[in-house]
Design a protein that fits this description.
The structure is a homodimer. Chain A is α/β, with parallel strands linked by helices. Chain A has 3 domains: 283 residues, Ribonuclease Z/Hydroxyacylglutathione hydrolase-like (Metallo-beta-lactamase, Chain A, 4-Layer Sandwich), CATH 3.60.15; 148 residues, Rossmann fold; 90 residues, Ubiquitin-like (UB roll) (Roll), CATH 3.10.20.580. Helices cover 31% and strands 26% of the residues of chain A. Chain A is built from 17 helices and 31 strands. In chain A, strands 9-8-7-4-3-1-25-26 form an 8-stranded mixed β-sheet. In chain A, strands 10-11-12-13-14-23 form a 6-stranded mixed β-sheet. A 6-stranded parallel β-sheet of chain A has the order 17-16-18-15-21-22, sandwiched between helices. In chain A, helix 10 crosses helix 11 and helix 15 runs antiparallel to helix 17. The longest helix of chain A has 20 residues. The termini of chain A are far apart. Chains A, B: GO terms for molecular function: exonuclease activity; metal ion binding; RNA binding. Chains A, B: Pfam families: Lactamase_B (PF00753), RMMBL (PF07521), RNase_J_b_CASP (PF22505), RNase_J_C (PF17770). Chains A, B: InterPro entries: Metallo-B-lactamas, RibonucZ/Hydroxyglut_hydro, RMMBL, RNase_J_2, RNase_J_b_CASP, RNase_J_C. Chains A, B: It comes from Halocynthiibacter styelae.
C-alpha cells in the first residue's frame, strides 16, 4: 500500500435515512482520488416536510464539482431508492452507468424519459465478471432481495477488497432471482475483505428472516377459500411476489389481471430481460369485466395507499370499469412503510364501507421482508469476516444499532452518516465532513431543500396568506385605501365582521396616520402594513398569517 | 312501551373514527324526543388534511338546533377525545355537564379556560347512584381504562336499559382506579339490556388484553439495570402508568422529576381528586439539575413525538436545563398512534445521534393497551347479554369487525356511523341519516371542514401562490404592466431567467394584446391574467400555482 494513496467511503445519501442511496468510493492521493458512485436513488416527499415536491434526491454537488474524476456509476438493483434519480441527475455527473440486465432496463428507461443518453447504461454480467473503473474493479455479486437481479458489489482496489451489499436477505429459496449462495460468499471473502458496507434496514428485527417461498402456500390457501373477487397488492417491483400472487390465483381457478402502470411495466421488464419465466398468462381489464367475479383475481399497485394508484382508485369507486363489492377480498401482501399509515388506513376504511374484507399482514404470513434481519446480518459479517463493518442504508438509529451489533461480536465498525468521509485504508478513521443535503424535484425544477421555497409553502399552509395592495401617487399620497385579499383564513373572526373588512379598516387607519417619511419609503410602508395585518388578523382570528404587500407607485 | 315514543341513538362523532366522541340518545315521540349527549371530545389535526388547524370537533349543528330539548351532557372520562371540546362547544348546547370527580375536575378547568361557567359541571357519585335527566336515569359504572375514574354509563329509559361502555378494558388489577368488577356487571345486566353500545378500538387484537399490573415489574427491571439517566414517556393521562414509572424510579434509588405541563397537571388532578394515593415524591427540574444522572429519572410528555412536548425538546437539546447524554436511556412506555410514526421516529433518531439508548414497546412488555381486545369484547357481550350490540368508537373497519364478531356469536348488531339514527325501540332499525361532519378550531375561530379555508391552504402548500396586481386607469388603459409576486415557487425555471420576470413579461404581452372590452371587465381581466399565469408558470417550472389577481382601478 502506497503511503500517499487512500481509499475512502463517503455516503451522500442513504446513511441517515432509508431512501435516496448514493455512496461514493474514492482511491488515490488525498484530494486527487478517482471516484465511483454506487446507486443514485430517490426518496419520497410528504405533506409534513415537503408539500408539493415530486421527488427527493441526495445533494450531489460535492461529486458534481469533482465529476472529472468520476469513473463510473454502479446500480445495485432497480428499486427507486437506488436507481430513481439516474435520469434526473446524470447530466450533472456524466459517467457511464453499469448494471445487470433487469436493472439496466429500468435505468435506461429512466435516462430516456429525461432525455439522457440511454447508451450510457452498460449491461453487465454477474460475478466473477468484473468491470474496470479507474483504480477500481467491480463485480456484481448476485444475492436475494425483493426484486430480480439484486446485487452486492465486490469492489477491488489497490488497497484490498470492499464488499458493498446493496439491499439483501439470506434467502436460499427466493423463487425469482438468485438464491443466497454461501459458497460464492465464502469464495468472495477468501482473499480478505477490508470493509463490508452493509444494509441496516432490518437490524431491529430479532429473528432470522423468512424465505419468499413461505408466502406462496398461505396466499394460495387464502385465495382458494375466497368467495368473491380477490384483489391483491404488493410492490410492483417485487416480481417474485407478483408471480406468487398470480400463481395462487391460477391455482384457485381464477383469471389474473394486472392493474396499474408500474405493475404492468415490471412484468414487462421481467419478460424482456428473461428473469420472469413461467409467469401465468394474464387477461386485460376489458376481458376481466366480462368474467364472474369469483373467477377473477386482480393484482394492483398501491400497497402504500398512494392516492393515484389502482388500489386507491378502487377504494374510491371504479378503476378501468372494475369495482369492488360486498364479500370481495382485498389482500395487502406488503408492509406499510412508516409514514404511510394514514393513506393505507383510508383505503381499508373505504373497502370496509363497501363490505369488502381486508386482509393485511398482521398475522405475518402474507408478506416477508426483503432485508436481512439481525441474525442474518451477523451471519453475513461472519462469512465476510471484514476488517471493518460500515453500516449503510438506514436511519441513524439503524446505523447505530448495526454498529453495536458488529462491535458486540468483536468487530470494528464505524458509524458514518451522509457527508462523513471514512478512510478505509486507515482502518475506518473519519477524515472529513462534507456538506450534504437534499435536492427537491419540484415540477421540473431542482431546488435545494433549504432554499426557502418549501418553507414558504408550509407557512402558507399553517397560517394562511394575506395579500395587501396599496397605490401611492406621484406626491407620495396614498391613492385610495389599502386593499386586502385573503386565502386560507376564516372569512369572519371574533367581531363577526368579514376579516377582509376588518383588515382593510385597520390598514386604512394605519395609512392615514402614517407620516410622509414612511410613505416615501417602500420598505417602511410594506413593513408597517405587514405588521399591522399580522396584528389585526391575530386579534380577529387568532392566526398571524403570511403577508405579501405590493406597493404600486404612480411614477 | 308507548307506540308513540321511541328510543334513539345517534352518533355525531366517534363512529367512523377514533376520536371526537359525541353520542346522542333521545327518547320521546318522533321529532319531539328529549336528548342527552354522551361525551364531547376532540380529534387532532394533521398536516396532510388539516394544516394550521388547532383542534377538530364533531359538527354539533343538529343538536344545537334542538338544544331546548337537551337535558344533560355526560362525560365518561377525562381523555381529550371524550372531554376536550366541552369548553369550546358548551355555549352552543347549554346543558349541565355530569361527570365523576376526576373527569369533572378536567371538564371544569376546560370550561374555565374558555370563559364558560364552571358551575355547570356537576360532580357525580358512581353507580348505583343515578342522575335524572329528562326521561333518562343515568348511572356512572366504574370500569378500568387508562385514566382514573373511567366509567361506562347505565342509561335507564322507559323503554329499558342501555349500557354505553365508554372506553374500557377488563382489567382486574389496574393499579389506579377501579378494577373490572364482574359481579357489578352481572348486577347491571340482570334487568335486561336493550342495547350495549360498545368501544371497538381493539377489536382486531386477537388475544385477551394484559393487565396494567404486568407492566410494573418489567419497567422496574429495566430502570434498575440502566447506567445513566432514565427518561420515560407515556400519556400523561395514564396516571396509573405514570405512577408505575415513578415507583420503578424510586425502587431503583432514583429521584423522580415530572416534565411537561400535562404531566404535572394530571398528577395535580390526581392528588386534588384523591385518585392518586401513594404517588412517590417528586423533585423540581432545578433540583434534578444538581443530581448525578444515574440517580435521576425523568417522566416526560410527548409519547407521540409532539414537537412542543418535553420529549421532542430533549431530542433537540435542552429542556429546563436538563439534557440527555450518551448511555442515557429513553423509554417509550406507550404505543405510537397511527399517523404519528414520523414524529416519533424523528426523536428516536435524534436520541440515537446523542448516543442515547431508546427502548420502545416493540417487545410488548413496557406498555399495555387501555382497550378491550376481541375476546374481552366477547366476554363483555356475554355478561351484558344485550338485545342489540352497537359498536362505537372506531373507524369503519373497527365498527364493521365488531358487528361481525357480535353476529358470529348469534347476536343482533347494527353498524351505525356518524349521522346514522338508530331506533333502539325498533330493534336497531336505521330510521334516519343526519348531516354530520367536522368543525375546525382554527386559531380562535370555528370553521366548517368543508368551508374551503383549509382546502386553499393545502393548495397553496402543494402549488405555491402567485400574486398578480394590475392598475387600470380612468380610460380603461393599463397603467404600467402587471406586477408579480411569488411565494412557494422556485425562483428560476427552465429558461434560467427569474420566474417573476418570465411571468411579468408574459402577462405584459397578454395585457398589450387585450381588447378594450376585456379591460373594462374586472372578471375578464382577472380570469385572463390567472390563466396566463398558470400556463406560463407551468411551462417554466412544471407547477400550476394558485393565483390571486388584484385589479385596481383609478376611479
Amino acid at each position: 500500500m502506497s503511503s500517499k494513496n487512500r481509499l475512502i467511503y463517503l455516503p451522500l445519501g442513504g446513511a441517515g435515512e432509508i431512501g435516496m442511496n448514493a455512496y461514493v468510493y474514492g482511491y488515490g492521493p488525498k484530494g486527487k482520488e478517482r471516484y465511483i458512485l454506487v446507486d443514485i436513488g430517490v426518496t419520497f416527499p410528504d405533506m409534513e416536510s415537503s408539500p408539493g415536491v415530486d421527488l427527493i434526491f441526495a445533494d450531489i454537488a460535492w461529486l458534481e464539482e469533482r465529476k472529472d474524476r468520476l469513473d463510473a456509476i454502479f446500480i445495485t438493483h432497480a428499486h427507486e431508492d437506488h436507481v430513481g434519480a439516474v435520469g434526473h441527475l446524470w447530466d450533472r455527473l456524466e459517467a457511464p452507468v453499469y448494471a445487470r440486465p433487469f436493472t439496466a432496463y429500468h435505468a435506461a428507461r429512466k435516462m430516456g424519459e429525461q432525455g439522457k443518453p440511454e447508451e450510457e447504461v452498460v449491461v453487465c454480467e454477474p460475478w466473477p465478471a468484473m468491470v474496470d473503473a479507474g483504480p477500481f474493479r467491480v463485480g456484481f455479486m448476485p444475492l436475494a432481495h425483493s426484486i430480480p437481479e439484486s446485487s452486492g458489489l465486490v469492489i477491488d482496489t489497490p488497497d484490498g477488497r470492499i464488499v458493498h451489499t446493496g439491499d439483501f436477505k439470506l434467502d436460499e429459496t427466493p423463487l425469482v432471482g438468485e438464491a443466497f449462495d454461501p459458497v460464492m460468499w465464502a469464495e468472495i471473502a477468501k482473499p480478505g475483505v477490508k470493509a463490508l458496507v452493509c444494509d441496516s434496514t432490518n437490524v431491529f428485527s430479532q429473528h432470522p428472516g423468512k424465505s419468499e417461498s413461505t408466502v406462496g402456500p398461505e396466499i394460495t390457501k387464502l385465495v382458494s377459500e375466497a368467495k368473491g373477487m380477490v384483489v391483491a397488492t404488493t410492490f410492483a417491483s417485487n416480481v417474485a411476489r407478483v408471480k406468487t400472487l398470480a400463481e395462487a390465483g391460477v391455482a384457485a381457478g381464477r383469471s389474473v389481471c394486472l392493474l396499474g402502470r408500474s405493475m404492468r411495466r415490471m412484468v414487462e421488464a421481467g419478460h424482456a430481460t428473461g428473469v420472469l419465466e413461467g409467469f401465468p398468462q394474464t387477461i386485460s381489464p376489458e376481458d376481466a369485466r366480462e368474467l364472474p367475479r369469483e373467477n377473477l383475481m386482480l393484482l394492483v399497485t398501491g400497497s402504500q395507499g398512494e392516492r393515484r394508484a389502482a388500489s386507491a382508485q378502487l377504494a374510491r369507486g371504479k378503476y378501468l370499469g372494475l369495482s369492488m363489492k360486498e364479500n370481495d377480498l382485498f389482500l395487502f401482501s406488503s408492509k406499510t412503510i412508516p409514514g404511510n399509515e394514514r393513506g393505507v388506513i383510508r383505503i381499508i376504511n373505504s373497502f370496509s364501507e363497501m363490505g369488502v374484507d381486508v386482509v393485511d399482514d398482521r398475522a405475518g404470513i402474507y408478506h416477508v421482508s426483503g432485508h436481512a434481519n439481525r441474525p442474518d446480518l451477523e451471519r453475513a459479517h461472519e462469512i465476510m469476516n471484514p476488517d471493518l463493518v460500515i453500516p449503510m442504508h438506514g436511519e441513524h438509529r439503524h446505523l447505530r444499532e448495526h454498529a453495536k451489533v458488529a462491535m458486540s461480536n468483536g468487530r470494528s465498525s464505524v458509524l458514518a452518516v451522509n457527508g462523513t468521509m471514512v478512510d478505509i485504508s486507515a482502518g475506518g478513521q473519519i477524515v472529513d465532513y462534507v456538506e450534504t443535503g437534499r435536492t427537491y424535484l419540484d415540477g421540473r425544477v431542482q431546488i435545494g431543500a433549504m432554499d426557502g421555497v418549501v418553507r414558504d409553502r408550509i407557512r402558507m399552509a399553517l397560517n394562511g396568506h394575506v395579500l395587501v395592495t396599496l397605490i401611492i401617487d406621484e406626491n407620495n399620497e396614498p391613492l385610495g385605501e389599502p386593499w386586502v385579499e385573503i386565502k386560507g383564513l376564516p372569512e369572519t373572526g371574533n367581531s363577526n365582521a368579514p376579516l377582509q373588512d376588518v383588515l382593510e379598516a385597520d390598514l386604512e387607519q394605519l395609512i392615514m396616520r402614517a407620516d410622509r417619511k414612511t410613505l416615501r419609503d417602500d420598505d417602511k410602508v410594506e413593513e408597517a402594513l405587514r405588521r399591522e395585518t399580522r396584528r389585526s388578523a391575530n386579534e380577529e382570528v387568532g392566526h398571524k398569517p403570511e403577508v405579501t404587500v405590493v406597493v404600486s407607485r404612480l411614477a
